[in-house]
Design brief:
Blueprint (H helix, E strand, L loop, with lengths): L13 H9 L16 H7 L2 E4 L8 E4 L1 H18 L1
Length: 83
């Protein structure tokens, strides 16, 4: 009997992903389109790299600190309403 390996999502290493994307000089926030700063600034400011499974356009997106805070606040409001 052979064991079957079930594919699963691997976690994202945000620092490594930011390093790779910053090296291209072409990254932008998925939500507001602000340009990704140099790597050290992006890490210090709190840029995030997220995986989106339900969007056919992109699998990994960048989120600037402003949109990340707005996204977090929106999720908190939803939980408070329906929690």
């Amino acid at each position: 009997m052979h064991s079957v390996t079930v594919p699963r999502r691997l976690p994202i290493d945000v620092n490594a992903a930011l390093h790779a994307i910053c090296s291209t000089g072409k990254g932008r926030c998925w939500y507001c389109d602000v340009k990704l700063p140099p790597e050290s600034e992006a890490l210090h400011e709190g840029w995030d790299v997220q995986r989106i499974d339900d969007q056919p356009v992109a699998n990994i997106i960048l989120v600037c600190p402003h949109c990340l805070r707005r996204e977090t606040a929106s999720e908190s409001r939803k939980l408070a309403r329906f929690g």
